[in-house]
Task: structure prediction
Amino acid sequence: MSAEGDEDQGGRPVRLTVLGKSPSWQDAGGACSGYLIEEGGTTLLMDCGNGVFGKLRERMDYVDLDAAVISHLHADHWLDLVPYSYALTYAPRQQPVPVHTWPGTDTPARPRLIAPRGAGETFRRVVGAWGNDDLIEHAFALEEYQRGDTVEIGPISATFHPVPHFIDTFAINLSSNGNKITYGADSRPGDELVEVARDADLLLVEATLPRPERTGIRGHMTPEEAGDHAKRAGVRRVVITHISDELGDEWAREQAERGFGAPVEVARAGATYEV
Ligand SMILES: [Zn+2]
Ligand SMILES: [Zn+2]
Result:
Protein backbone atom coordinates (compact mmCIF):
# COMPACT_ATOMS: atom_id res chain seq x y z
CA MET A 1 0.00 0.00 0.00
CA SER A 2 1.34 3.38 -0.85
CA ALA A 3 2.04 5.64 2.07
CA GLU A 4 -0.85 8.05 1.59
CA GLY A 5 -0.60 11.05 3.85
CA ASP A 6 3.11 10.70 4.41
CA GLU A 7 4.07 14.30 3.82
CA ASP A 8 7.41 14.10 5.56
CA GLN A 9 9.73 16.13 3.32
CA GLY A 10 13.46 16.05 2.89
CA GLY A 11 15.55 12.93 2.48
CA ARG A 12 12.47 10.84 1.92
CA PRO A 13 13.68 7.53 0.54
CA VAL A 14 12.66 5.93 -2.71
CA ARG A 15 11.71 2.35 -1.99
CA LEU A 16 12.15 -0.44 -4.53
CA THR A 17 10.39 -3.75 -3.88
CA VAL A 18 11.07 -6.82 -6.00
CA LEU A 19 7.77 -8.30 -7.15
CA GLY A 20 9.38 -10.66 -9.65
CA LYS A 21 13.00 -11.34 -10.53
CA SER A 22 12.77 -14.44 -12.75
CA PRO A 23 14.14 -14.49 -16.29
CA SER A 24 11.77 -15.38 -19.16
CA TRP A 25 10.24 -18.30 -17.23
CA GLN A 26 9.00 -18.00 -13.68
CA ASP A 27 10.67 -19.41 -10.62
CA ALA A 28 8.52 -21.86 -8.67
CA GLY A 29 5.93 -19.59 -7.08
CA GLY A 30 7.64 -16.56 -8.59
CA ALA A 31 7.13 -13.94 -11.26
CA CYS A 32 9.06 -12.49 -14.17
CA SER A 33 10.37 -8.91 -14.11
CA GLY A 34 8.42 -6.47 -11.96
CA TYR A 35 9.60 -3.86 -9.45
CA LEU A 36 7.43 -1.60 -7.35
CA ILE A 37 8.82 1.89 -6.77
CA GLU A 38 7.32 4.01 -4.02
CA GLU A 39 8.03 7.49 -2.85
CA GLY A 40 5.56 9.02 -0.45
CA GLY A 41 2.18 8.55 -2.09
CA THR A 42 3.56 7.95 -5.59
CA THR A 43 3.67 4.38 -6.87
CA LEU A 44 5.29 3.19 -10.04
CA LEU A 45 5.54 -0.32 -11.45
CA MET A 46 8.70 -0.94 -13.44
CA ASP A 47 8.02 -3.79 -15.88
CA CYS A 48 5.04 -6.11 -15.61
CA GLY A 49 6.10 -9.61 -16.62
CA ASN A 50 4.06 -12.76 -16.22
CA GLY A 51 3.08 -13.35 -12.61
CA VAL A 52 3.64 -9.73 -11.56
CA PHE A 53 0.00 -8.64 -11.33
CA GLY A 54 -0.76 -11.10 -8.52
CA LYS A 55 2.40 -10.04 -6.68
CA LEU A 56 1.43 -6.37 -7.05
CA ARG A 57 -1.97 -7.14 -5.55
CA GLU A 58 -0.28 -8.56 -2.46
CA ARG A 59 1.31 -5.13 -1.91
CA MET A 60 -1.24 -2.53 -2.94
CA ASP A 61 -4.59 -1.86 -4.57
CA TYR A 62 -3.94 -1.98 -8.30
CA VAL A 63 -6.29 0.94 -9.05
CA ASP A 64 -3.99 3.24 -7.03
CA LEU A 65 -0.94 2.77 -9.26
CA ASP A 66 0.25 6.04 -10.79
CA ALA A 67 2.16 4.53 -13.72
CA ALA A 68 3.54 1.35 -15.20
CA VAL A 69 6.84 1.82 -17.03
CA ILE A 70 8.02 -0.83 -19.49
CA SER A 71 11.69 -1.31 -20.43
CA HIS A 72 11.16 -3.36 -23.60
CA LEU A 73 8.58 -5.47 -25.33
CA HIS A 74 9.73 -8.99 -24.52
CA ALA A 75 6.94 -11.04 -22.97
CA ASP A 76 8.64 -11.45 -19.59
CA HIS A 77 8.60 -7.66 -19.14
CA TRP A 78 5.00 -6.83 -20.01
CA LEU A 79 2.72 -9.87 -20.39
CA ASP A 80 0.82 -9.28 -17.13
CA LEU A 81 -0.46 -6.01 -18.54
CA VAL A 82 -3.08 -8.34 -20.02
CA PRO A 83 -4.69 -9.54 -16.75
CA TYR A 84 -4.05 -6.07 -15.26
CA SER A 85 -6.05 -4.57 -18.13
CA TYR A 86 -8.87 -7.05 -17.63
CA ALA A 87 -9.05 -6.04 -13.96
CA LEU A 88 -9.12 -2.32 -14.84
CA THR A 89 -11.84 -3.02 -17.42
CA TYR A 90 -14.10 -5.63 -15.83
CA ALA A 91 -13.73 -5.36 -12.05
CA PRO A 92 -17.18 -4.28 -10.80
CA ARG A 93 -15.87 -1.08 -9.21
CA GLN A 94 -14.26 -0.19 -12.55
CA GLN A 95 -17.56 -0.26 -14.41
CA PRO A 96 -18.52 3.27 -15.43
CA VAL A 97 -21.75 4.41 -13.78
CA PRO A 98 -23.76 7.46 -14.93
CA VAL A 99 -23.01 10.17 -12.38
CA HIS A 100 -26.66 11.25 -12.20
CA THR A 101 -27.55 7.70 -11.11
CA TRP A 102 -24.90 7.35 -8.46
CA PRO A 103 -23.73 10.79 -7.34
CA GLY A 104 -20.19 10.82 -6.08
CA THR A 105 -19.16 7.71 -7.95
CA ASP A 106 -15.53 7.92 -8.95
CA THR A 107 -14.53 7.56 -12.54
CA PRO A 108 -12.72 4.29 -13.19
CA ALA A 109 -8.97 4.28 -12.54
CA ARG A 110 -6.80 4.51 -15.66
CA PRO A 111 -3.11 4.46 -14.70
CA ARG A 112 -0.46 5.82 -17.02
CA LEU A 113 1.40 3.24 -19.10
CA ILE A 114 4.79 4.48 -20.28
CA ALA A 115 6.26 2.12 -22.87
CA PRO A 116 8.71 2.21 -25.79
CA ARG A 117 7.72 3.57 -29.16
CA GLY A 118 5.77 0.92 -31.04
CA ALA A 119 4.29 -0.56 -27.86
CA GLY A 120 0.72 0.26 -28.84
CA GLU A 121 1.07 -1.67 -32.07
CA THR A 122 2.63 -4.66 -30.28
CA PHE A 123 -0.10 -4.70 -27.64
CA ARG A 124 -2.81 -4.57 -30.31
CA ARG A 125 -1.20 -7.44 -32.21
CA VAL A 126 -1.03 -9.68 -29.15
CA VAL A 127 -4.45 -9.06 -27.61
CA GLY A 128 -5.91 -8.63 -31.09
CA ALA A 129 -5.24 -12.34 -31.61
CA TRP A 130 -8.50 -12.94 -29.73
CA GLY A 131 -10.27 -9.78 -30.86
CA ASN A 132 -9.48 -7.52 -27.86
CA ASP A 133 -7.38 -5.06 -29.87
CA ASP A 134 -7.77 -2.01 -27.64
CA LEU A 135 -7.83 -3.85 -24.29
CA ILE A 136 -4.59 -2.44 -22.94
CA GLU A 137 -4.94 1.08 -24.38
CA HIS A 138 -8.47 1.29 -23.06
CA ALA A 139 -7.41 0.21 -19.57
CA PHE A 140 -4.29 2.37 -19.34
CA ALA A 141 -3.40 5.82 -20.65
CA LEU A 142 -0.57 4.86 -22.99
CA GLU A 143 2.40 7.17 -23.56
CA GLU A 144 5.16 6.00 -25.87
CA TYR A 145 8.66 7.20 -25.10
CA GLN A 146 11.79 7.49 -27.22
CA ARG A 147 15.46 7.35 -26.36
CA GLY A 148 16.56 10.17 -24.09
CA ASP A 149 13.02 11.17 -23.08
CA THR A 150 12.34 12.27 -19.51
CA VAL A 151 9.00 11.55 -17.90
CA GLU A 152 7.82 12.86 -14.54
CA ILE A 153 5.80 10.60 -12.27
CA GLY A 154 5.03 12.62 -9.15
CA PRO A 155 8.41 13.50 -7.63
CA ILE A 156 10.23 10.85 -9.67
CA SER A 157 11.95 11.58 -12.99
CA ALA A 158 12.43 8.62 -15.34
CA THR A 159 14.81 8.76 -18.29
CA PHE A 160 15.24 6.11 -20.96
CA HIS A 161 18.55 5.01 -22.45
CA PRO A 162 19.10 2.38 -25.16
CA VAL A 163 21.07 -0.72 -24.14
CA PRO A 164 22.07 -3.53 -26.51
CA HIS A 165 19.70 -6.53 -26.42
CA PHE A 166 17.79 -8.54 -29.01
CA ILE A 167 15.17 -5.83 -29.57
CA ASP A 168 14.91 -2.10 -28.74
CA THR A 169 15.51 -2.01 -25.00
CA PHE A 170 15.88 0.86 -22.56
CA ALA A 171 17.66 1.08 -19.25
CA ILE A 172 15.69 3.34 -16.93
CA ASN A 173 17.19 5.94 -14.64
CA LEU A 174 14.96 7.02 -11.80
CA SER A 175 15.93 10.13 -9.91
CA SER A 176 14.34 11.84 -6.96
CA ASN A 177 15.71 13.91 -4.09
CA GLY A 178 19.13 13.70 -5.70
CA ASN A 179 19.12 9.91 -5.55
CA LYS A 180 19.63 7.76 -8.61
CA ILE A 181 18.40 4.24 -9.23
CA THR A 182 19.39 2.58 -12.51
CA TYR A 183 17.47 -0.39 -13.84
CA GLY A 184 19.58 -1.96 -16.58
CA ALA A 185 16.65 -3.86 -18.14
CA ASP A 186 18.03 -6.73 -20.27
CA SER A 187 21.41 -6.06 -21.85
CA ARG A 188 24.41 -7.77 -23.31
CA PRO A 189 27.80 -6.52 -22.13
CA GLY A 190 28.65 -3.03 -23.40
CA ASP A 191 29.69 0.48 -22.47
CA GLU A 192 26.10 1.69 -22.82
CA LEU A 193 25.09 0.28 -19.46
CA VAL A 194 28.24 1.62 -17.79
CA GLU A 195 27.43 5.13 -18.98
CA VAL A 196 23.78 4.94 -17.98
CA ALA A 197 24.55 3.65 -14.50
CA ARG A 198 27.39 6.08 -13.79
CA ASP A 199 27.56 6.87 -10.04
CA ALA A 200 24.11 5.39 -9.34
CA ASP A 201 23.15 4.88 -5.72
CA LEU A 202 21.62 1.54 -6.69
CA LEU A 203 22.03 -0.50 -9.85
CA LEU A 204 19.53 -3.24 -10.55
CA VAL A 205 21.27 -5.28 -13.22
CA GLU A 206 20.46 -8.48 -15.03
CA ALA A 207 22.75 -11.47 -14.53
CA THR A 208 20.87 -14.08 -16.47
CA LEU A 209 23.46 -16.50 -17.76
CA PRO A 210 25.55 -19.26 -16.22
CA ARG A 211 27.96 -18.73 -19.12
CA PRO A 212 27.99 -16.56 -22.26
CA GLU A 213 25.48 -17.64 -24.92
CA ARG A 214 26.57 -20.82 -26.68
CA THR A 215 25.41 -19.38 -30.01
CA GLY A 216 27.90 -16.54 -29.72
CA ILE A 217 25.07 -14.04 -30.19
CA ARG A 218 25.03 -12.02 -26.99
CA GLY A 219 21.88 -10.63 -25.43
CA HIS A 220 22.38 -11.10 -21.69
CA MET A 221 25.13 -11.10 -19.08
CA THR A 222 26.68 -13.47 -16.60
CA PRO A 223 26.78 -12.44 -12.92
CA GLU A 224 30.51 -11.71 -13.20
CA GLU A 225 29.92 -9.46 -16.22
CA ALA A 226 27.11 -7.69 -14.35
CA GLY A 227 29.42 -7.05 -11.39
CA ASP A 228 32.16 -5.81 -13.67
CA HIS A 229 29.81 -3.31 -15.35
CA ALA A 230 28.72 -2.06 -11.92
CA LYS A 231 32.33 -1.56 -10.91
CA ARG A 232 33.16 0.35 -14.08
CA ALA A 233 30.11 2.55 -13.52
CA GLY A 234 31.22 3.34 -9.96
CA VAL A 235 27.82 2.51 -8.45
CA ARG A 236 27.35 2.35 -4.69
CA ARG A 237 25.16 -0.69 -4.41
CA VAL A 238 24.40 -3.57 -6.77
CA VAL A 239 21.44 -5.92 -6.92
CA ILE A 240 21.63 -8.63 -9.57
CA THR A 241 18.36 -9.89 -10.99
CA HIS A 242 16.65 -11.72 -13.91
CA ILE A 243 18.13 -14.93 -12.50
CA SER A 244 16.42 -18.31 -12.48
CA ASP A 245 15.98 -20.26 -9.26
CA GLU A 246 17.63 -23.06 -11.22
CA LEU A 247 20.95 -21.21 -11.19
CA GLY A 248 21.80 -20.89 -7.50
CA ASP A 249 21.92 -17.58 -5.65
CA GLU A 250 25.18 -18.29 -3.86
CA TRP A 251 27.03 -19.09 -7.06
CA ALA A 252 25.62 -15.98 -8.74
CA ARG A 253 26.54 -13.78 -5.77
CA GLU A 254 30.13 -15.07 -5.69
CA GLN A 255 30.54 -14.49 -9.40
CA ALA A 256 29.04 -11.00 -9.25
CA GLU A 257 31.24 -10.06 -6.29
CA ARG A 258 34.28 -11.23 -8.19
CA GLY A 259 33.34 -8.74 -10.94
CA PHE A 260 32.32 -5.90 -8.61
CA GLY A 261 35.08 -6.33 -6.04
CA ALA A 262 32.66 -5.72 -3.15
CA PRO A 263 29.49 -7.24 -1.72
CA VAL A 264 26.57 -7.70 -4.12
CA GLU A 265 22.96 -8.55 -3.35
CA VAL A 266 20.87 -11.08 -5.26
CA ALA A 267 17.27 -9.99 -5.87
CA ARG A 268 14.70 -11.98 -3.95
CA ALA A 269 10.96 -11.71 -4.47
CA GLY A 270 9.58 -9.46 -1.74
CA ALA A 271 12.91 -7.83 -0.90
CA THR A 272 12.86 -4.07 -0.43
CA TYR A 273 15.71 -1.64 -1.01
CA GLU A 274 15.70 2.00 0.05
CA VAL A 275 17.75 4.70 -1.59
ZN1 LIG B 1 14.51 -9.17 -23.00
ZN1 LIG C 1 13.87 -10.46 -19.80
